[in-house]
C-alpha cells in the first residue's frame, strides 16, 4: 500500500497522501459558534492526513441546526478558525471547511435568533431534536421564498469568503445527509411548484446555484461539494428518479470545474460508477463502515482519488502512522461523539502514548 502515502495533486494544492478526514459534527464550539482552542488541538492532531474536511459549519444564523456547532460568518468565527488552519498547516495538511445549512433539521432553541427553521417546503422531518432543554419534537419549517433562496446563496458566498479569510484552503459544500441542499433534491421534502421543485432539473437547481455562487466567490479550485445519493434518513426520499437526478446533477456540477466531489457511497455501485465517469476532477469516496482490511482498495483500483474516513480518524489521531505500521485502530467511543470536554475528543492516545494498543 505504498502509493496511497505518496503526495498527490488536488487542484492548486499538493496533498501529503491520499487520505482525508471526513466531516463529523462534534458540537464543541462556543454557544455563539466561535471555534475553541480545543478544536484547534483536535484538528491539528489529525493533520497527518492529506486533507482535513471539518465538521459542518453554518454559513448564517438560519443555517444552524444543532447546539454548539461552529459558524463561519462573523469576525470572531474567523479568528477561531484561523487558529485551526494554522494547526493543520503546521502538519503540512490542507483544510477545507464544510459549509452546512441544516434547513429543517433545526430547532429555534438551538439558533442565535430563535426563529423558525427554513426549508424548501413546510414539511417537518419527523426527527426529534436535541435542544438546551432536552429532546423536543421536530417543528414545521417555513417554506423559503425566492428572496430567501437568493439570500441563502449569498450567505454561502459570504461564508466561503470568510473561510478563505480565516486561512482555510477551500470549502466543501454540504449537499448530503438530509440537510438543506438534499432537502431540495428530495420530493419527500420538496413540494414546490416553482423553478426549485418538481422536475429533476428544478430540484437540482438550488445545489447548482450554490456551487456556482461559491465558485465565483473564491474560485472553483477552492470549491468542493459532498453528496450522499440514496440517503434515506430523517424523512428524505429521493424517489424512483433519484439515480437519474444525481446523474444530471453531477454532470452539471462538473461543468463548474470544482476541485473535488466527495461521495458518501451507500452501496449503489452502478450509480457511483456512473458518477465517476461523469466527474472530471478528483473523486473523494467515503464508505461508511468500511472495514480496516478494505482501506486503500478504492485507491488501488483507480475508483477513488482520495479515500475519506470518519470514526477511525476520530479515534486515531495517528491514523496514518497506524496504517503504515499495520497495527490495530483504537475503537471510537460513541458516548462522547457530541458535546462535552476533552474526553473522547483530544485525549485519544497515539501509538507512543499507548504502545500496548499496537
Low-confidence stretches: none
Radius of gyration, CA atoms, in whole angstroms = 19 Å
Question: How much of the polypeptide forms β-strand, as a percent range?
Answer: 15-25%
Major β-sheet strand ordering: 3-4-5-10-11-12-13-14
Q: What structural category arises from helix and sheet content?
A: alpha/beta
The total domain count is 1
CATH superfamily: Aldolase class I
The CATH topology comes to TIM Barrel
From the spread of the alpha carbons, the general shape counts as: globular
At CATH level 2, the architecture is Alpha-Beta Barrel
Family: Belongs to the NADH:flavin oxidoreductase/NADH oxidase family.
Protein name: 2,4-dienoyl-CoA reductase-like NADH-dependent reductase (Old Yellow Enzyme family)
Cofactor: FMN
InterPro entries: Aldolase_TIM, OxRdtase_FMN_N, Oye-like
How is this fold's topology laid out?
Elements: E1 8-10, E2 13-15, E3 19-21, H1 37-45, E4 51-57, H2 75-89, E5 94-99, E6 118-119, E7 129-131, E8 134-136, E9 142-143, H3 146-165, E10 170-175, H4 180-185, H5 200-218, E11 223-227, H6 242-254, E12 260-264, H7 269-278, E13 282-286, H8 297-300, E14 306-309, H9 311-315, H10 319-325
Helix pairs in contact: 1-2, 3-5, 5-6, 6-7
Q: What does this 3D model show about the protein?
A:
The chain is of the alpha/beta class and 358 residues long. It has one domain (3-357): TIM Barrel, CATH 3.20.20. 30% of the residues lie in helices and 16% in strands. Helix 8 links the parallel strand 13 and strand 14. Helix 3 (146-165) packs parallel to helix 5 (200-218), helix 5 (200-218) runs parallel beside helix 6 and helix 6 (242-254) runs parallel beside helix 7 (269-278). The relative contact order is 0.14. Pfam families: Oxidored_FMN (PF00724). Its cofactor is FMN. InterPro entries: Aldolase_TIM, OxRdtase_FMN_N, Oye-like.
